[in-house]
Inverse folding.
C-alpha cells in the first residue's frame, strides 16, 4: 500500500504544517512509513504552497509525487496546477471558499467539496485552523490516519493554549466528511 | 515513542543534522541564513542554549567559518551550515582549517547553482567545490547522506572524524534530504571521539609534531604555559612560518594529506544493494540514491541484473571500493544532479565502462530515468 | 617594573618591520599595558590577520593566532565564545581591519562582544608594497594611485561609534605613553573596545608622499593630533586637517555579548519543556 497525497493552496494556509502533522501521525502513531516534503515560492504569504505526503507500509525511497492519489486544493490556482496530474480515480478535496471551477480535474476523480475555511471559523473561530479541519476531512475520507492519531500529534505540536481549538477544528472537519 | 534503539521521531533532514551535532558534542554554531539550510541555524538557536552552548548569527559566511575555527581553537566542537553561495564564501577559511588542522563541521545543503541559481531546488553541483573549493593542495573529507537517518549518523561520524584526524569535515547534504521529513530512530547515545590531547609539558610541546599517525596533539590554552602560535602560512612544528626551506614546506603539506590517506579505510562509508551478481552497477550518492534503490528493485523484478553502490564518503574518493565493485560488471551508470562531477573520479577507478545520467534543472532524477538509462546501456 | 622582553618571544627576533616603522612602538605600548595590569600571559590571546601589523603576535609570548586577511575579528569572536575567561585582543591594520575586514569590525562592535581591537593605521598597504588603503588620505600617492588618490578615507572611530562600540580611543606612535594608557583602559573595559593607533610607514607611504624620514613622520603626528580635552579650543576649520586623540567614547549601557548569552541560556532553560515544543 503506497498512497500519495498533495496538500496545496496559498502560502500562509498552514499546509506545510498539515503535511508534517499527517506524516508524524502516520509514522509515530500508526506505525507505517511516511515522508513529507515541501515546496514553496519566494513569497511567505500568498504564493503557491505545496506539501507532499507519502504513506506506505513499505520503505519509501523516491519521495517525489508525480500523480497523487489524494489532492487537497485550497486555492483555485493550486487546483489548476495540480488537478490535471492526479491518478485515475483520485480523491480531490476542495475548499469551496476558494475553489469553484473543477473543470481541470479528470472525470474519474471523486470530488469532495467542503467550506473548509468556513468550518474552521465556525468550529474554532479561527480561519487559520483550516489546515487542521482539512486533516479531519482527510482522516474521515481516506482512513489512512485515524482521528485518534491526529489528536495525539496535535496535542503534542499545537502551541500551548491552542490545543482545544485545534481539536475542535479537527473534529469539525472529521464530522463534516463523515456526515 | 521509544524502542530499544532509541526514540522514534518524524524528522526533517536538517533537524537530524542539528540534533546529531548536539549529541556529538557541538557547543558552538556560527552561521548566516540561507535557503535551504536555515532550519539548521534555527534549531541550533533554540537547542544550543539549552545545552550550555552558543548560537551566533554572523555577518556573513566568511565570518561564520572564521568563528567556528576560532571556537575550535578554543577547544570547543563547532560547526556551521550553509548552501552553495555561502559555501563559496567559506572557502578561504576552510583552507585555513585544513592547513592549521582545526576540527570543525561544515554542512552544505546543496541547491542549484552557480550564483543564486534556484534557491529552493536541489542539486549536487557542489561535489567538486567541496573537494577543491579552496586554493592550494589540501586534503578534504566529505560525507553525503541520502536519508534522514543517514543525515543523523553521518553528522556524528563527520564530527568524530574531524576530531580524530584534526581536520575540517564537510557534510554534503542537499535540498531533498535537508527538507524531507521521514521516520528516524534517534539513538539514546552516540559514539564520541575527542581530539587527542598532549601529555607533553608546555616547554616541550610542539603543536604540529606528529607520530606515525600524522595527527598532531592539541593543548588546552589558558593554563600551564601552553602559549603556542598557529598561523596560516606553511609552518614548522612550532606553528611559526616555515623557516627551514622548501623540503620542510613540502613535508608539512604532504603530512596533512598522508594523515587522511592512512586513515582512508576507516572513514570510507558505503552501502551496497544487489551487487553480488550485478551486471550493471549504479553508483550513486546523496538524494539520488533513493531513486537508484527503487530503480534497482524494479529492474530486478524485470529480470535485469542491476545493483547499486551508494557512496556515503565521496572524498577522499573511495577508489578501492569502486575498483572492487566494478571488477565484475559490464557497465557502470552514474546518475548525478549536476552535469557530471563525481563521474570523472568513477571513470578513473572503474574496471568497466562508465555512463553518466545527468540532470541540473532543479528536479530529482526519477527511478524511471535510471531504469531507462540502464536499459539503454544494457 | 618588568622588561617587555619578559612578554616576548625573544628567539623570534628580529621582527620583520622596516627601520622607522611604528608597529614596534605599538607592540611596546601594548605589552606594557598588559604588564601593568598584571595579566597572566597564559590568559591573554592575540589574534591577527594579514599585513605588517599582523606579524606582531609572532614575537609576543601570549596565546597567538595569525589568521586570514581581514578575518581576525571573526576568529577572535569564536575563540572568545569558547574561552570567555580570556583577554582576547585583535591587532589589525587599516587594510586588514578597515578594508577587507571592515564588516567584521562593525558587527563585533554592534554585538558588544568583549574583544579589544587595536587598529594600527599607517595609511597604506605596507606588506604588499604600498597600495592605497581605505584610510589613505585623498590626494596622496600610493603605488596604485600615482596620479593621486581620488577616493576619500573615512574616520574609522566614527564608523565604530555608529556601529555601537562601547569604548573608542585614538592614540599615535608619537604619543606612545598615551597609547599605552588607552590600550590599558580598553583592556579593562567590559564590552567591545577599539583603539586606533596612527603610525608611520616611512617605506611605503612616507617616501612616496615626500614626508621625510621617520622623525618627520612622527612630528607630523605630533603636529596634527588634538587631545580630545582641547577640541573646543579649535574652530571647525582648524580641525579639518587634524585628528582627535584620547578617549573618544565610553558607554556602559549595553550588555556584553557573552554575558547576554548567559542570560539567554537561563531563559532557554526556564521555558518549560524546551522552546519550540
Amino acid at each position: 500500500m503506497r498512497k500519495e497525497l498533495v496538500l496545496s493552496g496559498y502560502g500562509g494556509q498552514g499546509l506545510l504544517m498539515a503535511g508534517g502533522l499527517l506524516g508524524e501521525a502516520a509514522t509515530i502513531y500508526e506505525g507505517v512509513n511516511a515522508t513529507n516534503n515541501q515546496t514553496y515560492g519566494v513569497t511567505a504569504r500568498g504564493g503557491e504552497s505545496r506539501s507532499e505526503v507519502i504513506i506506505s507500509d513499505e520503505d519509501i525511497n523516491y519521495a517525489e509525487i508525480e500523480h497523487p492519489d489524494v489532492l487537497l486544493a485550497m486555492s483555485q490556482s493550486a487546483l489548476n496546477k495540480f488537478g490535471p496530474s492526479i491518478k485515475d480515480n483520485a480523491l480531490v478535496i476542495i475548499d469551496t471558499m476558494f475553489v469553484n471551477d473543477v473543470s481541470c480535474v479528470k472525470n474519474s476523480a471523486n470530488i469532495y467539496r467542503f467550506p473548509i475555511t468556513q468550518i474552521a471559523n465556525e468550529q474554532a473561530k479561527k480561519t487559520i485552523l483550516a489546515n487542521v479541519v482539512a486533516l479531519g476531512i482527510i482522516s474521515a475520507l481516506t482512513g489512512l490516519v485515524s482521528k485518534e492519531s491526529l489528536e495525539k500529534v496535535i496535542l503534542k505540536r499545537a502551541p500551548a493554549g491552542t490545543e482545544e481549538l485545534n481539536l475542535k477544528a479537527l473534529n469539525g472537519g472529521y464530522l463534516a466528511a463523515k456526515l | 515513542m521509544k524502542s530499544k534503539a532509541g526514540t522514534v521521531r518524524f524528522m526533517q533532514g536538517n533537524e537530524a543534522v542539528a540534533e546529531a551535532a548536539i549529541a556529538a558534542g557541538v557547543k558552538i554554531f556560527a552561521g548566516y541564513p540561507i535557503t535551504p539550510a536555515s532550519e539548521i541555524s534555527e534549531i541550533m538557536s533554540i537547542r544550543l542554549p539549552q545545552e550550555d552552548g552558543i548560537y551566533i548569527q554572523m555577518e556573513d559566511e566568511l565570518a561564520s567559518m572564521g568563528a567556528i575555527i576560532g571556537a575550535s581553537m578554543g577547544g570547543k566542537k563547532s560547526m556551521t551550515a550553509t548552501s552553495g553561495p555561502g559555501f563559496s564564501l567559506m572557502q578561504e577559511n576552510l583552507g585555513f582549517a585544513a592547513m592549521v588542522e582545526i576540527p570543525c563541521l561544515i554542512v552544505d545543503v546543496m541547491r542549484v547553482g552557480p550564483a543564486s541559481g534556484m534557491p529552493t531546488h536541489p542539486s549536487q553541483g557542489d561535489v567538486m567545490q567541496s573537494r577543491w573549493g579552496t586554493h592550494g593542495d589540501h586534503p578534504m573529507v566529505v560525507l553525503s547522506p541520502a536519508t534522514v537517518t543517514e543525515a543523523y549518523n553521518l553528522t556524528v561520524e563527520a564530527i568524530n572524524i574531524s576530531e580524530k584526524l584534526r581536520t575540517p569535515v564537510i557534510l554534503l547534504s542537499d535540498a531533498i534530504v535537508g527538507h524531507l521529513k521521514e521516520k528516524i530512530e534517534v539513538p539514546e547515545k552516540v559514539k564520541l571521539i575527542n581530539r587527542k590531547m598532549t601529555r607533553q609539558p608546555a616547554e616541550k610541546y610542539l603543536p604540529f609534531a606528529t607520530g606515525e599517525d600524522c595527527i598532531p596533539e592539541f593543548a588546552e590554552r589558558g593554563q600551564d604555559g601552553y602559549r603556542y602560535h598557529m598561523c596560516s602560512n606553511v609552518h614548522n612544528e612550532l606553528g611559526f612560518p616555515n623557516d627551514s626551506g622548501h623540503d620542510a614546506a613540502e613535508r608539512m603539506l604532504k603530512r596533512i594529506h598522508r594523515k587522511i590517506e592512512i586513515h582512508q579505510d576507516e572513514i570510507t562509508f558505503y552501502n551496497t544493494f544487489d551487487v553480488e551478481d550485478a551486471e550493471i552497477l549504479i553508483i550513486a550518492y546523496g538524494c539520488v540514491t533513493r531513486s537508484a534503490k527503487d530503480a534497482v528493485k524494479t529492474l530486478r523484478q524485470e529480470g535485469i541484473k542491476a545493483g547499486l553502490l551508494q557512496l556515503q564518503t565521496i572524498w577522499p574518493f573511495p577508489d578501492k571500493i569502486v575498483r572492487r565493485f566494478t571488477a565484475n560488471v559490464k557497465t557502470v551508470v552514474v546518475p548525478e544532479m549536476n552535469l557530471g562531477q563525481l563521474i570523472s573520479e568513477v571513470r578513473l577507478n572503474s574496471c568497466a565502462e562508465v555512463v553518466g545520467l545527468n540532470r541540473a534543472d532543479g528536479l530529482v532524477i526519477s527511478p524511471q530515468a535510471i531504469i531507462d538509462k540502464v536499459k539503454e546501456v544494457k | 617594573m618588568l622588561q617587555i622582553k619578559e612578554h616576548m618571544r625573544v628567539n623570534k627576533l628580529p621582527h620583520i618591520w622596516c627601520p622607522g616603522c611604528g608597529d614596534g612602538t605599538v607592540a611596546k605600548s601594548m605589552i606594557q599595558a598588559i604588564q601593568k595590569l598584571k595579566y597572566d600571559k597564559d590568559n591573554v590571546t592575540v589574534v591577527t590577520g594579514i599585513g605588517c601589523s599582523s606579524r606582531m603576535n609572532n614575537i609576543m609570548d601570549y596565546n597567538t593566532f595569525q589568521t586570514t586577511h581581514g578575518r581576525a575579528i571573526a576568529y577572535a569572536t569564536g575563540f572568545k565564545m569558547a574561552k570567555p575567561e580570556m583577554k582576547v585582543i585583535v591587532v589589525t591594520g587599516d587594510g586588514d581591519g578597515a578594508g577587507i575586514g571592515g564588516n567584521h569590525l562593525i558587527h563585533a562592535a554592534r554585538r558588544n562582544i568583549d574583544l579589544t581591537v587595536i587598529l594600527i593605521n599607517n595609511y597604506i598597504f605596507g606588506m604588499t608594497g604600498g597600495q592605497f588603503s581605505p584610510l589613505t588620505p585623498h590626494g596622496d600617492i600610493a603605488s596604485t594611485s600615482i596620479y593621486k588618490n581620488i577616493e576619500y578615507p573615512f574616520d574609522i572611530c566614527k564608523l565604530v561609534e555608529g556601529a555601537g562600540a562601547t569604548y573608542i580611543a585614538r592614540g599615535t606612535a608619537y604619543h606612545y605613553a598615551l597609547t599605552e594608557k588607552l590600550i590599558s583602559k580598553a583592556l579593562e573595559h567590559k564590552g567591545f573596545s577599539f583603539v586606533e593607533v596612527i603610525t608611520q610607514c616611512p617605506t611605503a607611504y612616507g617616501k612616496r608622499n615626500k614626508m621625510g624620514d621617520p622623525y618627520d613622520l612622527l612630528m607630523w603626528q605630533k603636529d596634527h593630533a588634538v587631545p580630545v580635552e582641547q577640541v573646543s579650543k579649535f574652530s571647525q576649520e582648524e580641525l579639518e586637517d587634524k585628528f582627535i586623540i584620547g578617549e573618544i567614547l565610553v558607554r556602559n549601557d549595553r550588555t556584553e555579548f557573552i554575558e547576554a548569552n548567559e542570560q539567554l541560556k537561563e531563559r532557554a532553560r526556564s521555558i518549560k519543556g524546551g522552546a519550540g515544543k
In short: The longest strand of chain A covers residues 2-10. The domain at 2-116+142-155 of chain A is CATH 3.40.920.10 (Pyruvate-ferredoxin Oxidoreductase; domain 3).
